[in-house]
Amino acid sequence: MRDYIIRRLLILIPVMIGVSLLTFALFNIIPGDACVLRLGFGSTPETLNDCREQHGLNRPLFPITVNSDLPVIHLQESQYGGWLWDIIAHQDLGESLAEGGARVSTELERRLPITLELMIVTIIFALLLGIIPGMVSAIRPNTPIDWVARVVSVLWLSIPSFYLAILMITFGLLWFGWTPPQFGTGYVPFYEDPWINFQQFFFPALVLSVGIAAVIMRLTRSAMLEVLRNDYIRTAWSKGLRERTVVWRHALKNALIPVVTLIGLQIGALIGGAVIIESVYNLNGVGKYTLEAIIRRDLFVVQSLTLMFAAVYVLCNLMVDVAYAWLDPRIHYN
Amino acid sequence: MAREIALPLELEEERPGQRRRLGKMLQTARRHPLGVFGLICISLLFFCGIFAQLSFFGIGLSITPYNPIDVIREVRTFGVLAEPVDASDDKLVVSDSTVEAGTNFNIDQERISVITVLSTTSEGTTILVRRGSSPESHGQGAALQLDTAIPNAKPSRSHPFGTDHNSRDVLSRTIFGARISLLIGLVAVSTGVSAGAVLGVISGYFGKVIDSIFMRGVDILLAFPAVVLLLAIITVFGDEDSTVRRFLANSTPLPERDFLGIPNFLDVFIVALAIGLAVAVFTTRVVRGAVLSIKENVYVDAARAMGASDARIMMRHIFPNIVALVVILGSVLLPVAILAEATISFLGIGVPIPTPSWGADLSDEKSRSLMLEGYWWPVFFPGFALSLVVLGFNMLGDAFRDLSDPRLRGSGLGGGGGGRGGGVAM
Q1: Could you tell me if B338 lies within 8 Å of chain A, comparing CB atoms?
Q2: Cβ B181 vs Cβ B362: under 8 Å
Q3: Which residues of chain A are within 8 Å of residue B236 when distances are taken between CB atoms?
Q4: What is the spatial distance between Cα A271 and Cα A317, in angstroms, rounded to a whole number?
Q5: Computed over its alpha carbons, how large is the radius of gyration of chain A?
Q6: Which residue, B25, B143, B247, B377, shows the most beta carbons closer than 10 Å to its own?
Q7: Which own/partner pairs from B217-223 qualify as long-range (CB within 8 Å, at least 24 positions apart)?
Q8: Which pairs from A315-323 meet CB under 8 Å and 24+ separation?
Q9: CB of B337 closer than 8 Å to CB of B279
Q10: Which chain B residue's Cα is nearest to A179?
Q11: How are strands ordered across the β-sheet holding B125-130?
């Protein structure tokens, strides 16, 4: 198992290098470098040069440049190399190009707790809304409860999260005179005031969790139906165990194994969803920061954030694979 | 025994098929009402997408009641001329006292603007006016017409979905949005799936170094969360001066503007290509997996032993085996692509204004702030259409899964089954 994790981590190194190269290349093939984008095309050559000097844009892009005869290697002096080196050695993700923009690391310190909490609350809601109805509808197949659960799951699956968010905000206000607690007072951390914190995150997380909950519900239902057909369940019944014991102790544990994988696969959807929901609910998290940076063309910020998202995504997938083997003793990675 | 079983089958085949097949289809449909509902939703999408704006040899087949981009103007009569006027007159007597200086109105297409109000008597208001470019004489009782835009009109008979804050007809925009969704979905899926199929076959067939290179590339692209990757690609390629955009505009026959009624066709096309790239990455991986097992078949060895070239083996022996997979992938990915378009348009990076796109209409700042004041229709209907389409695809997919999986057959309502949880979600 340990060997497997180490091997997977080693494979991640070339993948992450590829991701960083692609991200860097993608944002540097736009005509007009970051300084041109910042100062506009009306800027004089002198101011442009100053700006480039200041942000180190006069350096070569890539670590290896091929001159007329010999390839020249300049690792840290290149823009790409310097960017990566700063991240690895100094945990410095660069700075924003916007006027008065803070360093990315400073912004992240402020925004990361918000996004992380949003994701955690979302996953909790998704598990609650997904597993319990999925289980109930599998235990009582083809009953009204089952039909309702299945129709609801298809509905949840189909309604885009941003539309649901808009509908809830609008009709909450129009019909009930209710508005979601805005971040007027700013983000209140959980340890300061759990109740206000909960109010701030309840609706964004609920909206974001609905789509994921639907997928979990469907998977739980089909996995549970499959498990309930097994011989050992029949044995458990014939031993005269109570329904609660059979379902919770014997069936659910095994039915949840594929659900764990699914949650890992949903991390990508969760990051994308955070971008959407944070901008709808005006939460100052990392997702909103990314979107604003993309719209502003704040290249340094975007390339660092994209790299970070990719790293998180890849690591989450690794953790899921590990958890999978841990939960299911039949699985061996060799 | 075998004959006894075979007999009714032979009898079945001898019966004239047409009515039986129809009956069977109806039976299947009755058993999967949600699947039928899904089929209706998808048919509606295709119908609206194709007929949104269409004319054949001057015969208009458009089902959009108005142009989705045009401002809707309404002609309202607010008074009549009390006395006839000549072409040279610049004083008018009108039987309406609400006329003010600066008002513009029309009489029989002639545009007239009021300079001042001179006097008001019981017969009417005398006003000093500036006449239109070609003044005409008008008789007594000619209608004074106001020609105004009608922003935020409530849903009514002439505008069933109302109008938005730009006075555009929401019904027309919603119907036209189907065309954008359909176009982007079809272009993204057809380019993405075919490119992915080719790459997947090559990668799986040759294996070794080529496979490693391709799969690492796929790993890298799959390491990005989909929305982030799409936003990055479109930011880069959609840029006015980007090489890709310039190449598409200048070196391909793609029209830059005004094609199929879409004002900025090329931008829409680039969005489709970006989504297609994401589709291709996914397809490559799936097809490659299938090819790995197909190429182990004996007939592939046989073909190679007979001296067939790699290209021939791939085309004649491997590709036919993945056609079904490719078709299924395409139909599964179509709603994903549609939803992806709506999502990135909602985030403001996708289809640019004024092209009607469901996602973009949902994100319109002004519409959304007006929505909180009770003008819900410009945002509600496009979102409803989008949800309905995704719902349709999900329900049809569930019905198909029930039909194809014998263990779930006859479990009543469609939905729920499937090994992987299935369904479309962003």
Answers
A1: no
A2: no
A3: 26-27, 29-30
A4: 13
A5: 25
A6: B377
A7: B217/A18, B218/B281, B218/B284, B218/B285, B219/A15, B219/A18, B220/A15, B220/A18, B220/A19, B220/A22, B221/A22, B221/B277, B221/B278, B221/B281, B222/B281, B222/B282, B222/B285, B223/A15, B223/A16, B223/A19, B223/A310, B223/A313, B223/A314
A8: A315/A12, A316/A264, A316/A267, A317/A264, A317/A265, A317/A267, A318/A5, A318/A8, A318/A9, A318/A12, A319/A264, A320/A260, A320/A261, A320/A263, A320/A264, A320/A265, A321/A8, A321/A264, A322/A1, A322/A4, A322/A5, A323/A260, A323/A264
A9: yes
A10: B372
A11: B73-80, B143-149, B104-107, B110-120, B125-130, B91-94
Predicted ipTM of the assembly: 0.84
Task: State which amino acid sits at residue B20.
Answer: R
Q: Mean pLDDT over residues B287-316, rounded?
A: 89
Whether residue B318 is predicted with pLDDT greater than 60 in this model: the reply is: yes
Query: Would the pLDDT of A248 be above 80?
Result: yes
- Give the CA distances from residue B321 to residues B290, B316, B358, in Å, rounded to whole numbers and listed in that order: 9, 9, 37
Q: How confident is the model at residue B424, as a pLDDT?
A: 42
Say how far apart CA A136 and CA A157 lie, in whole Å.
19
B87, two tokens: 């072409």
Return the ∠ at Cα A310 (arms to A308 and A315), rounded to 5°: 95
Sign of the dihedral defined by the CA atoms of residues B123, B127, B132, B136, in that order: positive
Q: Is the pLDDT of residue A288 over 70?
A: yes
Per-residue pLDDT at B284: 93
Instruction: Tell me how crowded residue B48 is: count the other CB atoms within 10 A of its CB.
Output: 21
CA angle B119, B122, B123 (to 5 degrees): 85
By Cβ distance, the residue of A15, A160, A269 closest to B219 is A15
Report the gap between the CA of B138 and the closest CA in chain A (Å). 49
A133 contacts in B (CB within 8 Å)? none
Q: Which ranges of B32-169 does DSSP label H, i.e. alpha helix?
A: 33-51
Residues paired with residue B262 on neighbouring β-strands, in sequence order: B259
- Could you give phi then psi for residue B127, rounded to 5 degrees? -130, 150
Residues B266 and B255: beta-carbon distance below 8 Å: yes
Taking every pair of Cα atoms in chain B, the longest distance, rounded to a whole number of angstroms, is 108
CB half-sphere exposure, B181, CA atoms < 13 A: 36
- Report the percent of chain A where pLDDT is more than 90: 9
B327 class by beta-carbon count within 10 Å (0-12 exposed, 13-18 middle, 19+ buried) = exposed
pLDDT (tens digit per residue) in B184-196 = 999 999 999 999 9
In this structure, the dihedral spanned by the alpha carbons of residues B276, B279, B285 and B291, taken in order and rounded to 10 degrees, is -70
Closest-CA residue of chain A to B349: A295
Cβ neighbors of B357 (< 8 A, separation 6 or more) are B177, B180, B181, B341, B342, B345, B350, B351
Q: For tokens 């369940």, what's the residue?
A: A233
* Shortest Cα distance, chain A CAs vs residue B383, angstroms: 6
Query: Tell me, what's the pLDDT at B192?
Result: 95
User: Which of B188, B180, B178, B190 has the alpha carbon at shortest distance from B44?
Assistant: B178
Q: Encoding tokens for residue B356?
A: 């009607």
